[in-house]
Amino acid sequence: MSALLRVENLRTYFHTRSGIVRAVDDISFSVGEGETLGIVGESGSGKSVACYSLLRLIPQPPGRIESGEARFGDCDLLHCREEKLRAIRGNRISMIFQDPMSSLNPYLRIGEQVIEPLLIHKLASPNDAFDLGVAALREVGIQDAAKRMRSFPHEFSGGMRQRVMIAMALITKPELLLADEPTTALDVTVQAQILELIRRLQQEHGTAVIFVTHDIGVVSGFCDRVLVMYAGRVLESGPTAELFYEPKHPYNQALQRSIPALHERGAELHTIPGAPPDVTQPIRGCPFAPRCEFAEEKCITSEIALKEVTTGHATACLRVQLGEIDLTPAAVAGE
Amino acid sequence: MLRFIAIRLAQAIPVLFVVATLTFFMLKLAPGGPFSAEKSTTPEIQKQLEAHYGLNKPLFSQYLTYLGNVVKGDLGPSFKYPNRTVNELIGQAFPVSAELGFWSLLVALSLGLSAGIVASLRPNTLTDYIPSGLAMVGICLPIFVLGPLLVLVFALKLEWVRVSGWDDWIDRILPALTLGGFYAAYIARLTRGGMLEILSQDFIRTARAKGASPARVVLRHSLRGGLIPVVSYLGPTVAGLLTGSFVVETIFQIPGLGRYFVTAAFNRDYTMVVGTVLFYAGFIIVFNLLVDLVLVRMNPKLSYE
Ligand SMILES: Nc1ncnc2c1ncn2[C@@H]1O[C@H](COP(=O)(O)OP(=O)(O)OP(=O)(O)O)[C@@H](O)[C@H]1O
Ligand SMILES: [Mg+2]
Fold first, then answer.
1. ipTM of this model?
2. Quick check: B226 contacting A, CB < 8 Å?
3. Within this chain, do residues A174 and A322 fall inside the same structural domain, yes or no?
């Protein structure tokens, strides 16, 4: 599978009054055509900033992309000319956001917003665009689509607005969809519907998806591969099933233990002691070390890079890399 | 919508009634009368004049008579300009004030909106500080300072325009700049604030993610919401501008309604004062109504409730 997007050494910092926030601190990953990549991590781990950085949508200032490259076709998204990037945004790469309540323009009609990408990128005439808009709304399951084109966002529920966002993002048949926690703000039943919708449309259109979530449970049924982010870095990445059944980083292992759904009834539910580190301070060594039950002196003193330990499965845990610890459930149970 | 307009106009009637009543009685409380300034008149003549205009009747009966005429659309005779009615005087002075107001409004909107929008695009940079600073100066500089200042520079020093008068189109420039400049400063600040508020919203990020150009982001996605504070402010402002500014009309010797009004107040020209106040109040009511209609069109969340 050839890579559609290849991100190398992306670093995005916010230069705020209280110091430099290292929101994304040297992450690399790639997404293949039609592939779904999950990015999981706690709140504040830099998932959104990583996504926004790809389309240069972070507020600048205070934000700044400090280094890195994001190869998309023949273009480096982080450094290409503004006009070139604009031609990609909303056309070849679309985005849907966490909060559907605030992400649609309350002053414009739904129809106008849904077809706007077609008009901006001159993919259809206004007349054709209207029909395509109706079709797109129908496709995401909005009743009475032709009439609803004239509605305003406040006349829609949260779930319906997210459907509109999806219709709007996919109307140009993009190669890549960035979905930043598209279901977090919705209630559980609607969440499931929206996830199902994204998955169906993705398969029909062959769109690659970067799916950001802090809910590791959502990832399992949805993503081909997963990145686990922590304090602006990637601690582990690999195929979804492996990530669940053969964790290679103590943080990932701890995350698994904290999900109720993955446990038998009555089994002890873990919470991870401590709190994520303050990203305004430079971190030496492993950012998870202060909370890690396996941490040793060398975890704090040496620089640690993400390394592949089995095919396609990489970890930033030094001790796993060195073969000193084995976190697979079988090994843990055998201890 | 028609229902909305009808209700609002019906609500205006008691407001106008209260305005008329208050002005009427407050004027009567002020010492002196319309004819006391004319030293040459003997007490007899003064009595006759007062009888002619009905000023010798009991206060309440004067009030009822006046109110009755107002309902018929007759604002009464002027006490100061013999044989002229207040309706005539307003009809003569209002077009002048309205023209001055129109040019001033044009100045205020074009300067204010562009300065405010430019300032909001890159907050806290030079392209923000310069227009915002100018707006601050404009707000702090009273009209009675700005007007003479402009006269000093453009009429006396450079001799590009005349000091005062209201004959040529060139006479419109300084008054319009003076009056419009002040409002431009306010509009610039309101525009900047409104635009900054909108530009920080999530849906602006959505627009950019769709590939919208900066111009499209501003024109299509921001202006409608960002200008709501400006439009709300425009209601009373436009009414005020069109019905005349006493200060500017005095500085530039413009025969507008503002000057008539103040002269009338000094002379205790009762009917002229109450008439102008009523006229002004009516204008404010109409423009506030217009503004509310526009606001409902601008903001889909509002409706004619
Ligand atoms: N505009 C900003 N100015 C300063 N700091 C910011 C800004 N935006 C984000 N950050 C910081 O960047 C870090 C990462 O934020 P980010 O929004 O990417 O987290 P996240 O992983 O998406 O979390 P969540 O699950 O809550 O969405 C946080 O520490 C946050 O405080
Ligand atoms: Mg986020």
1. 0.86
2. no
3. no
